[in-house]
Specification:
Strand content of chain A: 15-25%
Number of helices of chain A: 8
Shape of chain A: elongated
Low-confidence stretches of chain A: 122-127
CATH superfamily of the largest domain in chain A: Response regulator
Order of helices and strands of chain A: EHEHEHEHEHEEEEHHHEE
Oligomer: homodimer
Number of domains of chain A: 2
Structural class of chain A: alpha/beta
Strand order of the largest sheet of chain A: 2-1-3-4-5
Number of strands of chain A: 11
CATH architecture of the largest domain in chain A: 3-Layer(aba) Sandwich
CATH topology of the largest domain in chain A: Rossmann fold
Chain lengths: 226, 226
DNA sequence: CGAACTCGTGACAGTTGTGTGACAAAAACC
DNA sequence: GGTTTTTGTCACACAACTGTCACGAGTTCG
């Protein structure tokens, strides 16, 4: 369920936008002023914000900046003013798109979809516990649990595992691992093999038959997605 | 250094766009047709693509879809047509933004910056899997699935299949395959036969009667479109 | 019809890629 | 300062993969 917050002072426009978006399947929150919108978004964050520029009190530009101080939510400006100056200012303030009223619902909806495609899932930002099947990584704590039991990993093994986990499901070449874990631009790729081998001893139940940390012959190594 | 590819058939517009963008500090690649643009982008990928809709030959929509098959590059449509239908179609095809000509350089530049803010760094980007009927290719994961089951392909088979899949539906000559998969400029073309044969054993239900990876006598091999 | 050609495939030997145990240097710890 | 742990290098062994060849079936064409 995708929620959209509409910040717009004109009652008629706000309602018609809300109805149109609801018809497109969105859950719609509304606010008549920037202040109200900011509070609303803090309490119950929507996935996308639509904001008018000419608002009583705090104006649209300021509203965008305020939102951006704590929030990466996609912001689309819906304004009556078709002026390069405003467009540039709004985008610079942190808006992602700018459409001119009146706008066709279909277009608005398509732009929202396009924007959402580009929006990274919140997950990739900070180090947070990653659970991969029976493995649990706690990068901030420097811990790795296998079925709830703490693994005794060395620092290199830990970093290697984190790097692989960050790209779980993707093959990472020895070169890539060397660069990201060891910060070597060149070097003996066999080093990676050895450490992968050691990591396997600890991470796999049967190191002879790896199921989690697998080799992709000719390409590199991969941590399986659960 | 940020590179932008401009695909636009009108010489005057293309040049003025290119100059304007260069003034803004971008490196600009140009192409007068979609075909040229696609080749250019494959050879030397830009960070953002600007594309016109009305192009001779392959049109803008098709160009966008073709780009999106392998590339997550941000795409901005720059079109003379201000029509909801076109806008929606372009965005649905995979474009990220749509601006109407003539557009102020400042606005275009601001939109490019806004878009780039949203674009995840290339390292995190996950190429989307290619699905061809019952076959699913996941190049980044080094995996190929047939009806959901993992195939054990060797590296050469894998690369061969990827190359064929990239041009699914068209015949590739042994020469082309030798060049692209093996990076041989010359060599024994029978080598290709052998590997195609081995690949067939794994990809076809009845290798004697190939339905997916077919021979085009006298010309080469072809991976059937679903 | 037969010669020339195309293509599929099994066999095989040489090459490459990978796992691993041993070991010494380096770092961490006490 | 000595002990323990970690790290990087090496060498060997083995398995997987690759490229070549040769034979045979099927096709094309004169």
């Amino acid at each position: 369920m995708v929620a959209v917050l509409v910040i717009e002072d004109d009652d008629r426009i706000r309602l018609s936008l809300a109805m149109a978006l609801e018809d497109e399947g969105y859950t719609v929150h509304t606010a008549a002023t920037a202040e109200e919108g900011l509070v609303r978004q803090r309490r119950e964050p929507a996935d996308t914000v639509l904001v008018d520029l000419m608002l009583p009190g705090i104006d649209g530009f300021e509203c965008i900046r305020e939102l951006r101080r704590h929030d990466e939510v996609p912001i689309v400006v819906v304004s009556a003013r078709d002026d390069t100056h405003d467009i540039v200012a709004a985008l610079e303030a942190g808006a992602d798109d700018y459409v001119v009223k009146p706008v066709a619902t279909k277009e608005l909806s398509a732009r929202l979809r396009a924007l959402r495609r580009r929006t990274r899932p919140a997950s990739v930002a900070e180090p947070r516990p990653t659970v991969l099947g029976e493995l649990e990584l706690r990068p901030y704590a420097g811990e790795v649990l296998l079925r709830g039991e703490l693994l005794a990993l060395t620092r290199t093994e830990f970093r290697l595992l984190c790097e692989l986990a960050e790209h779980a499901g993707q093959v990472l070449s020895r070169q890539q691992l060397l660069a990201r874990v060891w910060e070597y631009d060149y070097g003996d790729e066999r080093l990676v093999d050895v450490h992968v081998g050691r990591l396997r001893q600890k991470v796999e139940d049967d190191p002879g038959n790896p199921v989690r940390l697998v080799t992709v012959r000719g390409m590199g190594y991969k941590l399986q997605r659960p």
